[in-house]
Amino acid sequence: MDVLHYSRLQNPTSRLSPPHRRFTLPSTSSSLSLRRFSARSSLPLPVQNAKYNRELRAAVDAVERACGLCVDVKRSLFTSDGRILEKNDQTPVTIADFGVQALVSLELGKLFPSIPLVAEEDSAFLRSNNLVDSVVNVVSDKASPRDKALTQTDVLEAIDRGGKFGPNPATYWVLDPIDGTRGFVKGSEALYVVGLALVVEGQIVLGVMGCPNWQVDKSNKSTFKVQEYEKDIFSSGMIMIAHVGCGTWSKGISDLQNGMNWIKCLVDGYTLVHKGRFCISESQTWESLPLASSFGSTTNVDGVGDKEVLLLPTCCGSLCKYLMVASGRASVFIQRARDDRVIKVWDHAVGVICVQEAGGKVTDWNGDQLDLAADQVERKALFPPGGILVSNSSLHREILHIIASNSSVVS
Question: Which superkingdom heads the taxonomic lineage of this protein's source (predicted)?
Answer without folding.
Answer: Eukaryota
